[in-house]
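for the writeup, i need someone to sanity check this before i put it in the appendix. the sequnce is what the collaborator sent (i think, or maybe the updated version? ugh). structure was predicted straight from it, no edits. if anything looks off just tell me and ill rerun, i have time this weekend
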Amino acid sequence: MIATPSPSSGGGSGLAGIRGAQDLGGWTSTNNHSGLKCRPRRGPGQLDSRSGQLRRRIAIGNVPNQGVRAPYVNGTEGGAPQAQRAISSREPAAATTNQLADLFERAVPVQTPVVSDIGTPSTRVVASGASAGLRAPALRAPARAPGGRSPPGGRLEELLGSYLSRGHRGRPRPVLLCPGPVLLSAHVMRAVRNTNIGHREPEFSQLLLESAAMLKPVVGIGSADSSYRIAFITGSGTAANEAVLASVGAIGPTLVVSNGEFGERLLATARRHNRDVRELRFAWQEAIDLEKVAEELERRQYHLVVVVHHETSTGMLNPIAAIARLAHRHGALIAVDAISSIGAEVIAVEEWGIDVLTGASGKALSAMPGVGIVVVKGSVLEQSASMPAGPQYLNLHTHCGYMRDHAQTPNTPAVHVFVSLHASLEESTLQGMARVRGVIHARALFARERLTQMGLEYADYPGTNSSVLTCVLLPEYLSFEHLARHLKTRGIVVYNGKGALTDRMFQIGHIGALRKNDTRDALRQVQAVMRQGTQATARPLQFVATERSTRSIS
């Protein structure tokens, strides 16, 4: 018979004509009349096997007590068994990389049924077949060529392992002070790490339904019988915007109201799908003049008015409720880009009368980037149903139809990104949206107060300041490149200004799973860079203790 090698034997195999039982490095091999059997001794890194080869089982993880839950294949509910810890980040980088490579190269489906949970513990769905998990051979130590050198391809694995497997060992903890992507909470990361489900399984359909239900209070949909539909699109917020402009925005005259970079992006997208598009442009950092909007709507009949809620390039909030009233008064629909504001600013879709709203997962909703969100009235969809076929992938009618009829997406979604969105919405629901917005607002106030004490000017718009980010004017003696390079060595990421504001300002974000002192520590590093600059130029740093900066960066 073929005796199964011990995991510590480096993958070596041997032939032995033996009868009865023989101890082989922790594995018991038995040869009897019924055939070959292998029963492992329960130890670290070992699991049961039903074949003559040592195999491991990759199981579906679980998020305890809430969210998307799925027990391990071997029935362990309380956490990962010891064998699955063998591929954790605590192992050496090179060994982990080789182990993962071995898994992906040699993994085969398991036909063992798996019982998975989603939502409440009472909701149980049985999944079987190849979707239940993977069963892979034992992980081997990396082979070495004569002389101790790595075999061909080993260098690539070492390079991958040096970054992916070691995590941030030996480096500062990353702090993303940018308006997206953002830091993920421990709950969101745990949900992503421990949840593996197929996108055509009932579990994923329920995940979509729960996500849509939890999203309604975030955007201000309170009535249970609301006529609004919610669709999720694998893609950035731009994908959601284009899906709207290629359907609702393609059947009549469209007016784009812009006062920043993202309003101008909406204009460019709208003109790709509609020849009859006009722009009402205001200067960056200039408040939208409602009288001019009313004049333009009186001058011509428009089918759709498009505007950005939070202009991320400047940090200004636009008066959506007032613009929506003007649009409806003149017989037009209104579509709102709320990609960076959803989850951080108050949005009242029903109260304000918004017809279409777009959002994204990877900003103030504090999930992974990659899910575009569309909230649209059913009556608006019906108006554009008779239009010629639009894009294949970004067809809003197709996405809304699949969500309504099947609780599904028409194409393969980025499942783990959807899981992260579901987990982040769970957190927001448990905390309450008022508290979530309050935390973000408090971070913004703290940062602006500290900036004033440091003598730095920032963009301040009385009554229309965003809580998402703060745009800070760079001192004349300090370049953004120098500042960003210094902050990056401390693990801190900030973004440059956009358009005409490039290299003249930088942005500090207040969203995501930031810790209590992240903003304070980052501003201390900014202050250290400023001191270096003032010492180099012999220009003293002045502190302003009480006065608030109200300067527009222009």
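The first strand starts at residue 2 and ends at 3. Residues 1-145, 536-554 have pLDDT under 50 and may be disordered.
thx in advance!!
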